[in-house]
Specification:
The complex is a heterotrimer of chains A (about 325), B (about 575) and C (about 325). Chain A is mainly α. Chain A is built from 12 helices and no strands. In chain A, α3 packs across α12 and α5 packs parallel to α12. The N terminus of chain A is likely disordered. The longest helix of chain B is centred in the middle third of the chain and has 18 residues. Among the domains of chain B are: about 140 residues, P-loop containing nucleotide triphosphate hydrolases (Rossmann fold); about 190 residues, P-loop containing nucleotide triphosphate hydrolases (Rossmann fold), CATH 3.40.50.300. In chain B, a hairpin with an 8-residue loop joins β11 and β12. Chain C has about 325 residues and is mainly α. Chain C is built from 13 helices and 2 strands; from the N terminus they run αααααααββαααααα. A two-stranded antiparallel ribbon of chain C has the order 1-2. In chain C, α5 crosses α8, α6 packs across α8 and α7 crosses α10. The longest helix of chain C has about 40 residues. Classes of the chains: A mainly alpha (about 325), B alpha/beta (about 575), C mainly alpha (about 325). Chains in contact: A-B, A-C, B-C. The interface between A and C is large, with 45 and 57 residues.
Chain lengths: ~325, ~575, ~325
């Protein structure tokens, strides 16, 4: 069974044939970057540039939240319950200092979204990194060594894929929390979530890396390295890993979008980040309780922020997949 | 020439591919004619634009190619500018097409019969039943036995050669007057290649079809074509009867091209330097290596006591083809079956055979990429187990280096040429300082004819022939005694092949290397080797001195292979 | 072919054995089962007696064999929280989940494949481009946000459909169905759309990508060169080859539907197994978690076994073997 959506043919990178024998000049890193097919495709794809721009803005805005947010939602002295449930400025009853209104506890929506978004992005990134490191490592080992090691790793991946990702994340997360002492549960919730999502993610990375490793290790440059007599770890590090990273990066980008969604979903289900330090998912969960009473902004703005962020990352991943897979153009 | 109008007349045809680096003119001002009952060979090296013309005729140019100028007259009718529906009536009905790879040309999920009948019914106003009987006739016409039964088979149940016959039957299904065959035999073995060419020529003559054969292989042209058009960089440089083109070419390019083809009937000292083709045509003799003083001459390996550089005894290796629950159901392939030979110090030993004969597997066993199931390998008199990673095997391995077939996959695209070539030097610490490493690499690149500046560039900036030179430099960097060349030129154009073979010969002489040279190409083997072993189905049929083998083969299979060898001397023509 | 089927069967058994092992280990990892069964006031003797009754002092292997035996009979013990047999609880809630998943799967497959084929064939049409851009929004919308949005629009603002619960249920033996009444359909439609949307966009994009991939194949070029009509090329040659990889993914996606039913059921308070699972996780109700895990894996394995058998019919290379 192959996840064809993720299965690429990594051949076919363009081959420029210079007139042979001509005087060859070494070219700098920058000129190669500009001349690069992928860079070219990027600067000729409005969608990719917009996506990159939105992603960059989201990342910058949320990472700089402590400096640019109008309020600190975690500082009780800045919160007053009297200001609770205020609508956005442009709606009747809105107050100018609360641009997007306030939530049920009187926290400024814009500030909580910036802080929440920061948490969502950080958790997503950390989870993807965990899954990627684990998956790439196991995938390369599986693909390069083959045999029993390969069989064991891939069977584990197969079995794990029998249980759909989000379900497994809920389960691992639930078990993780139960294992922690009661008083530590809130503080460690974030790490449990990262662990749960990362652990859910690795088979994707392992499969793609293994597939690419199988293709690469059949190639003659790897055989040449073996004929020279390089030890296996050196061949893996120097020759195989750099050549399998392209598909891994695509999976990682799409995986980041999925990880952010997974975190939001866990938090929405009340299984993830606690309301004391809310992520976007937690904010939506809280807001959902007030949706029926007409306080739409408490849900809408965090939801919109989440969707825009995930959409931008997905758009970027989509472009990357096409740019790195010239066959589908 | 024919009296009335030609079947196909192409006037002043130009095809352009707009790309981001500017417009590429794939074909420029092409003039061609094909008569009924005539085979026109369209020959050229890669990138010459020969396939473009075939695709342009039936309006199937790859995106974003387009015809910018000229006319294509087919039976007096202009094809250029026909709309999709009209063009569809031309394709298949009046012009048939045959592609290179029979493995991928057929829909794997449909029976042969379904694909044939569908095509027949599209082109001819016949009933299902009649289409069926026509399909049977077609299969018989292309030489497939039990046609009635075979109609129910799927493509994967045919061998490669049989599949190409099915493809030909499909191309004939609409009873076209012109067949365009784009490299129809390139993916096939020599013996099957000859059969398919015979079939195409036979069909051409009996059905009075016009045929255009697009190929890079002069041998194919010599065997099948009536007239030849030679293409170079998008232009037809010379057209004429096959005897003239092969025997007495006029244009400089054609002369160089023909000169670069390894002759099957005699051994050359070197290939003539090909001066028309602007390739990496640097004269190597100017930079001869003095083994006494050069870095490459610093010996690190002792001479072999018995004079044999490499010897293998009773090598055996089998692969599992199809796994099964029970051992008796398992299908095994005996890839290497009891192979024994020995290569003397300084000798060039050839291994020749068709694909699947196990010749590459032997090479991989010797360098330790595979582990033999039985048998012994000695390198410089010492028995080694090269797949191991211990000190002694590493030392023995250094004496052996390999040059691979595919120049596009044999170099790691993420590393600079410097780092690729320097890898063995650094790993074995064969140079004192990084500065020394660099100067050695630059010197090596100079010796293989690339120039020192190549060191700072990446592999994708080089052409196939240049990449093969980088591979050779990398192999030399281990200071090997024995070079194993696995089809080192089969992915290259014939003019580049001549240069690489010259380079290998020179290096061997200067450095006194021992060489194991593997190829499916008998003429190339004849040029390169002192002794030859012929392999078939994993076993060696015959080992003999090269000249003896070519002049007086003792094994039946060797004779068979020699018979099939495409010959440039036209006396051998089957149909004259 | 037989060895192919046998291998698949063996693989399924292996998967189920592994999942059951994980389920079993949940009992030992997550808290002390005895604590979960008795209150704080139970005496030490009570606890020892319960331990013995449950066989918790037996060797782990014996316990596992017993667990497997019981599991094969559908017996996963009593829920810690509700104190009722897990099998009964699942049986009660199973129809709700299966009907929801079924309706969603039909929506996702029919719309997804149709739109995928359309965008694959007309790849430069404006409608294709619109569908494609919309689909990217689709994969970026978390299921719970779709649910909330649909509720807000159709239940809160327009008041056309109920916002939650499962109304209009008719009992057919032990199976409670919502397919037989208008109210039943009214209450299933929003959750079904919510659940299907993500998978629908995935299937759409996948079918399109496969279609484009197949369109590059040599046999399509050869079919063009024989002058076959676009219709024959698209629907006879391309579609069939597209189906081969697509049905694999569809197998995986039905598993995905079950997983995301957990979220959908929570948003819509749909009384299915997913909602039960979430509540069980909240209370560390291990028997329900273990049983649910096995249940999901079983469905996944069965669906994939069917997919593997479908291959035998679609792909002659598997049915007939090599040359």
């Amino acid at each position: 069974m192959c996840l064809s959506i993720l299965a690429f043919d990594w051949e076919g990178s363009s081959i420029s044939t210079n007139p042979a024998g001509s005087v060859v000049k070494p070219r700098g890193f920058f000129s190669r970057l500009i001349d690069n097919d992928i860079a070219w495709s990027f600067f000729h794809s409005p969608a990719a540039m917009i996506a990159a721009f939105i992603t960059l803005v989201c990342v910058m805005a949320t990472m700089l939240a402590p400096w640019i947010a109008p309020f600190n939602p975690f500082d009780p002295s800045q919160i007053s319950l009297w200001d609770g449930k205020l609508p956005p400025v442009w709606v009747e009853g809105g107050q100018p200092q609360y641009l997007l209104g306030t939530d049920n506890q009187g926290r400024d929506m814009l500030s909580t979204i910036l802080y929440g978004g920061r948490l969502s992005i950080l958790v997503g990134l950390a989870a993807v990194c965990l899954g990627m490191v684990l998956g790439v490592l196991l995938g390369v080992i599986s693909g390069y060594f083959g045999g029993a090691v390969d069989a064991v790793i891939m069977r584990i991946a197969d079995i794990q894929l029998t249980i759909p990702g989000i379900l497994l994340a809920i389960l691992i997360n639930g078990i993780g929390r139960t294992l922690l002492p009661l008083e530590l549960r809130e503080d460690f919730a974030i790490y449990v979530v990262i662990f749960a999502i990362g652990l859910t993610d690795w088979p994707q990375f392992a499969r793609v890396t293994r597939g690419a490793t199988l293709v690469e290790s059949q190639k003659e440059y790897v055989q040449a390295a073996r004929v020279i007599g390089l030890p296996r770890w050196l061949i893996i590090m120097r020759h195989i890993l750099p050549n399998v990273m392209r598909p891994v990066l695509v999976i990682a980008t799409i995986g980041l979008a999925l990880a952010i969604i997974s975190e939001a979903t866990l938090s929405f289900l009340g299984q993830g980040i606690p309301p004391t330090t809310p992520s976007l998912g937690t904010l939506i969960r809280v807001g959902n309780e007030y949706l029926f009473s007409g306080l739409w902004w408490i849900t809408l703005f965090p939801a919109a922020a989440l969707v825009i962020l995930v959409f931008a990352v997905n758009l970027l991943g989509d472009w990357m997949r096409d740019a790195l897979n010239p066959k589908l153009r | 020439m024919a009296t009335d109008q030609a079947l196909l007349e192409i006037h002043n045809l130009s095809v352009q591919f707009p790309t981001r680096r500017g417009v590429v003119e794939a074909a420029r001002a092409i003039n061609l004619q094909v008569q009924p009952g005539e085979v026109l060979g369209l020959v050229g090296e890669s990138g010459a634009g020969k396939s473009t013309i075939g695709n342009a005729i039936i309006d199937l140019l790859e995106h974003p190619g387009r015809v910018t100028e000229g006319s294509i007259l087919f039976q007096g009718e202009e094809l250029r500018g026909l709309d999709d529906d009209a063009m569809r009536k031309v394709r298949g009905d009046r012009i048939g097409m045959i592609f290179q790879d029979p493995q991928t040309s057929l829909n794997p999920l449909l029976r042969i019969g379904e694909q044939l009948i569908e095509t027949i019914r599209k082109s001819l106003p016949v009933s299902d039943k009649e289409a069926h009987s026509r399909a049977v006739d077609l299969l018989e016409a292309v030489g497939i036995d039990q046609a009635e039964v075979r109609l129910k088979s799927y493509p994967h149940q045919f061998s490669g050669g049989m599949r190409q016959r099915v493809v030909i039957a499909l191309a004939l299904a609409g009873e076209p007057d012109l067949i365009i065959a784009d490299e129809p035999t390139t993916a096939l073995d020599v013996s099957i290649q000859a059969q398919i060419l015979d079939l195409i020529r036979h069909l051409c003559k009996t059905r009075n079809l016009g045929v255009i054969i697009v190929t890079h292989d002069i041998g194919v042209i010599a065997n099948i074509a009536d007239r030849v058009a030679v293409m170079y960089r998008g232009e037809v440089v010379e057209t004429g009867p096959v005897a003239q083109i092969v025997g007495a070419p006029q244009h400089d390019y054609t002369i160089s091209l023909i000169a670069a083809v390894p002759p099957a009937d005699r051994k050359l000292e070197r290939f003539n330097s090909v001066d028309y083709i602007d390739g990496d045509n640097l004269d190597h003799s100017a930079r001869r290596i003095d083994v006494g003083t050069h870095w490459l001459g610093e010996q690190s390996h002792s001479k072999s006591p018995d004079g044999a550089a490499v010897s293998v005894e009773n090598l055996k290796l089998s692969f599992v083809l199809e796994r099964a629950l029970f051992k008796r159901n398992r299908k095994m392939l005996q890839a290497v079956d009891d192979v024994t030979f020995s290569i003397a110090d300084g000798e060039t030993f050839g291994l020749v055979g068709e694909s699947g004969s196990g010749k590459s597997t032997v090479a991989r066993l010797i360098v330790g990429l595979y582990k033999p199931q039985a048998g012994r390998i000695r390198v410089m008199g010492q028995e080694v187990e090269l797949h191991k990673q211990d000190e002694q095997s590493l030392l023995a391995r250094r004496a052996l280096q390999m040059i691979f077939q595919d120049p596009y996959s044999s170099l790691n695209g993420r590393l600079k040429v410097l780092d690729i070539v320097a890898e063995p030097i650094r790993f074995f610490k064969m140079a004192g300082s990084e500065k020394q490493v660099r100067s050695i690499v630059k010197d090596l690149l100079d010796h293989v004819g690339l120039g020192a500046a190549a060191a700072m560039r990446y592999p994708h900036e080089f052409s196939g022939g240049q990449r093969q030179r980088i591979s050779i430099a990398r192999a030399l960097a281990s200071r090997p005694r024995i070079l194993i060349c696995d089809e080192p030129t089969s992915a290259l154009d014939v003019s580049i092949q001549a240069q690489i073979l010259n380079l290998l010969k020179d290096l061997q002489q200067e450095l006194g290397l021992t060489m194991l040279f593997i190829s499916h190409d008998l003429p190339v083997i004849r040029q390169m080797c002192d002794r030859v072993a012929v392999m078939r189905n994993g076993a060696i049929c015959e080992i003999a001195q090269t000249e003896l083998l070519f002049n007086a083969p003792s094994h039946e299979y060797t004779r068979h292979l020699l018979d099939l060898m495409p010959r440039m001397d036209l006396l051998d023509r089957h149909y004259q | 072919m037989l060895s192919y089927i046998f291998r698949r069967l063996a693989q399924s058994v292996l998967v189920m054995a592994a999942v059951s092992l994980i389920s079993f280990s949940l009992f030992n990892f997550v808290g002390d089962p005895v604590n979960n069964m008795v209150g704080q006031e139970a005496t030490r003797e009570d606890r020892v007696r319960i331990r013995q009754d449950l066989g918790l002092d037996d060797p782990i292997f014996t316990q596992y064999v017993r667990f497997m035996g019981n599991a094969l009979n559908g017996d996963f013990g009593l829920s810690y929280r509700i104190k009722r047999p897990v099998s009964t609880l699942i049986k009660e809630r199973l129809p709700a989940t299966l009907e929801l998943v079924f309706v969603s799967a039909v929506i996702a497959l029919v719309v997804g494949i149709a739109a995928g084929v359309y965008t694959g064939i007309r790849r430069n049409g404006w409608l294709s481009k619109t569908i494609l851009s919309t689909s990217l929004v689709g994969v970026s919308l978390p299921t719970f946000i779709i649910g909330i949005a649909l509720i807000y629009l159709f239940a809160v603002t327009l008041r056309w459909l109920p916002s939650s619960g499962r109304a209009g249920v008719v009992e057919l033996g032990w199976w409670k169905t919502s397919f037989l009444t208008v109210d039943g359909w009214r209450s299933i439609i929003l959750p079904a759309i919510t659940l299907s949307l993500f998978q629908l966009t995935m299937i759409l994009r996948l079918v399109r990508a496969e279609m484009l991939e197949v369109m590059q194949a040599d046999y399509i070029k050869f079919a063009r060169a024989r002058g076959l009509s676009e219709r024959a090329i698209n629907f006879v040659h391309a579609l069939k080859n597209t189906l081969v990889p697509v049905i694999t993914i569809i197998g995986l996606n039905i598993g995905g539907l079950i997983a995301f039913s957990v979220i959908t059921e929570t948003v819509f308070q749909w009384p299915g197994t997913g909602l039960m699972f979430i509540q069980a996780v909240d209370f560390a109700d291990v028997p329900i978690m273990a049983a649910y895990l096995c249940f999901v894996a079983l469905i996944f394995v069965i669906v994939n076994l069917i997919v593997d058998l479908l291959y035998v019919f679609i792909d002659p290379r598997i049915r007939l073997g090599g040359q």
